[in-house]
Structure formats: structure tokens, C-alpha cells
Amino acid sequence: MDSITRCTRMRGTILFCFLLYTATSFAQNHSEKLDSLFNSLYSHGQMNGNVLVAEHGQPVYKKSFGYLNIATQTLHDENSLFSLASISKSITATAILQLKEKGTLKLDDYVTTYLNEFPYPNITIRNLLTHTSGLPDFDLFEDEIKRNPNKIFTNKDVLPSLKVWNKPLENKPNETWTYSNINYLLLALIIEEISGEEFQVYVRKHIFIPAKMKNTIFQTDTLVLRNKRKSTNYTYPFKYSSKLKRVDSIDRFHWNVHCLSGFVGQGNILSTTEDMLKFDQILYSGTLLKTATLAEAFAPNKLIDGTIAGSVNFGQKYYQGLGWFVLEDTTEGHIVWHSGGVPGALSILFRNIDKRQTVIVLDNTFSSGLYRNGLNAMNILNNKPLVATKQSLARVYGSTLVEKGPDEAYAKLIEMRDDTTYYYVSEEDLNDLGYQFLYEASFDNHDRHALEVLKQNTLLFPNSFNTYDSYGEALAKSGKKEEAIVMYRKSIALNPANEGGKKALEELLRKQGDQK
């Protein structure tokens, strides 16, 4: 006799068993749909990492995809550590709000109250939390990195660098929203100043340990890392690259991988999907923060003029809270989230705090569309249509051009252009691909590849003045001046305000006249 039959023979339990059976069926249905989604993404090179989807704290789907280390063919498992990148900001915000609850700071206190050397007296802690300070981002350190490319910066470098920077703010505090990592480096310094503890020590003691996040560490914890399954980060060096490469072996990412590795507060936390679910769940318990404090954190920030600053990602509008983003659409519940991205790694944490649904996706190959795919997992839980998650055809087209030549690349281009389920054609991406061939490629025939790509862009987007302008530049660089003149004239005809094109055309005509 099966369990359902036994249940139906027990008076008063028929409805309960029916509901239990129905809930189980829905969970199985969601699990199957989630598996179909992420398996498809993995098979199309858009997923390499771990996924965990939960309802009321219980995983309904979790799975590992791909390699922790491609060179050693080490597969991911549930203990794989990934870079959280900017999801770390939600943890820093939690620490600041803990200090607020203790009465040791107020969100509208000026930063100078705690950091005497801070050179901008009108910026508040709230401005830092909501990215409305007007401070620069990592370009603050650009000159110093050029002078000393092997230096590992730490939070102690922030205040001296701001003094050297000595420029007006990009906007008045709370006038507009401008994302800046510097905000959260300063918040970490404030936490240290108030608590008397190193930022890492405070966060371990007051967040990681209470949440039992035993596999969550800082990237600066080099001794601990030796015994952990840390993911190696990979990416495609250029749009024409056909193979993933370790990020730490790519010269142009040196500053991010090396120079910025000593910062804390803005990022540089490593964790697992299991530990991030623990962080998600403890926020419901009142252990880390009170319900009223979290409600304040999850409310959109109002600017000086009374408007709410927002942006759009994965087709959804969102607002800035205190260390969290807040989706505008509340038809399926109040959804808050944060994402993270560094070269070779992407991360996403979605939380439907009304329905207690959680989506965590951590990836170590900078897989395109990760954010939208996290939202799609949430959509599956709520039986909503999926958001289209296509990838640009530029990389596959470019790598085919390098490996197999223009004829096969063109055939691939047409094939992918017609496969609208998985690919989209982007004028901007093809333009970037052409310029990478033109100025960054280090192999033979790169000029020829650039001309091929930029020519195809004019055919795909014949009404865009910029496609002809770019093609003209490539032709001129390749010594094909007559053809370049034709392209620049076409570009200017489409856009008479193309001053750059006019100057380039004048220069070509002058040289042509000199030769005659």
C-alpha cells in the first residue's frame, strides 16, 4: 500500500495529503525546469559553476557545472569557493547596520566624524551605502598603478589617494546615483575605526560565525586558502578568442587581479552556494539585524529632488537600497538582490523576501547572461515566463574567422544570425571585435580580419554611420586610402555631425593631393 493510499484512509487527513502531494509535484516540476535551464546554458557555454535555488531555506535545486580548474580537469562540487565580488557589499552593509543598531553611528553622520582625514566634509555614511557620494571609482588609483604596477593596494591607501586626487566630486552628495567601489572601502575603514577591530576580524566574529559560514573567507586569508577548493578564474582574453584563459595570466587584467587584491569591503570575499544560503537565511532570524533595520535596507533611496534613482538590468528596473538592489516589479513579491563581477568571475544572489525564495549562482568563467539566468530561476519558482538569455555572436564569429578563414566565418555568421533562440547580432560588439583585430591582435593577418569584420558590420547595419566610419579607419590603416575615402563620405552623408569622420576624410584628401 503506498503512502498516499494510507493517508486517504485516515479521517481528516485527505486534504492535507492532497496538498502535500501537490506541493511535492510543484517542487519536482520546478526542479526539472531549473535543471533544463541550467543544463542548456552549460551546453551553450553560458554556465560554469554552482547553482542553488531554495524555498523557505530548503534547496529545491542545486548542481555543479564544469571545472574548478580547467588545466587539472578538477570538477566543481558543493565545496567550490567562488569570488563573491560585489555581493560582498551586502555583507559590509550588514556590518554597518549592526553598528547603527548598537548606537555607535548614525547613517546620516558625516564620514569626517569617524575618518578625520577624509577630504569631503558633506558626504554621509548613507551616501556611501547608496552610491550617492559622488566619489570616483578605482580610477582614483590609476596614476599610482601606472607608477607602481606591482603594488598591492589596501584600504589604508584610500584616504591618502583621495588627498592626492584633490578634485571636485562628480556630483553633490545624494544628487544622483554613481556606482563606486571607493564607497565601500571607506565603510570598511569606518567599521574598523568604531569597532577597534580589523574589518576581517569584525565580519568573521559578527557575521560569518553567527551564520555558521564555515567556508567563507577573505581573499587575503592566504594561509586558509591552501586547504580550500578555490575556483580558478577564466575568461576569453578577446572577442575573437576561442579558448578560455586564466585571468591571472592575461596582462591587461594584472591591475585588477594583483593591485586591487588587498582591498576589503567592496569585494574580495570567497564563498560557496551553501554558505550564501546560510547568510540569506540568518537575515530572516533577527540574529544579525532587526526586521525594522532590514526593512530600511530594502527600501529605495530617495535623492535630493525626491526622485528614486534607478537603472535597468536583465530587462528589469531596480533601485538602490542600503547595500542591496531592489526590483521595481513587486507582482511576485519584494525581491532584493546583489550581483558581483571581476575578471573571470560573476555572481548573483536573488532574495524574494515575501515568499522566502532564494537563487544563488556563482561562476568562474565570466559566463554571459548570468544575471538574467538568475532572474529566470526566480521566474521558474513563480511560474513566470523566462527572460530571453541570448549571447552575442561576435566571439564565435571572430574565433571562426581566425581558425577557419572568412568563408567559414561568414557561413557561421549567417547560421548564428538565424538562430535567434541563442544568439543576437550587436553592431557594437562587432565593432569592438573589429577594433580588437585592428589594434590588439598579435598574429598575422589581423588587419585582414579587421577589414572583414567591419565590412560585414556595414552590411548588417547599413543605416549606421558609425559602421562606415570604423570601416574607413581600418581601410586607411591598411593603406587602402581610396576605399577609406568612400566609407568616410558614406558615414558623413548619414550623419553630417560626424566631426571625427570629417577630420579623417580631410586628412586623407590632403595626403591624396600631396601625392598628386
The amount of beta strand, in percent, is 5-15%
Shape: globular
CATH architecture label of the largest domain: 3-Layer(aba) Sandwich
Determine and state the CATH class of the largest domain.
Alpha Beta
Q: What is the averaged pLDDT score?
A: 90
Percent of residues in helical segments? 40-55%
Biggest sheet: strands, sense, closure? Answer: 8 strands, antiparallel
Q: How many beta strands in the DSSP annotation?
A: 17
Could you tell me the CATH topology label of the largest domain: Beta-lactamase
From the helix content, strand content and strand pairing, which structural class follows?
A: alpha+beta
Termini separation (Å)? 99 Å
The rounded Rg comes to: 26 Å
CATH H-level superfamily of the largest domain? DD-peptidase/beta-lactamase superfamily
Number of helices: 20
Contiguous runs where pLDDT drops below 50 for at least 5 residues: 1-26
In the sheet with the most strands, the strands line up as 2-1-15-14-13-12-11-10
- Number of spatially distinct domains: 3
Overview features:
Beta-lactamase, alpha+beta, 3-stranded antiparallel β-sheet, 8-stranded antiparallel β-sheet, disordered N terminus, Serine Threonine Protein Phosphatase 5, Tetratricopeptide repeat, 516 residues, 17 strands
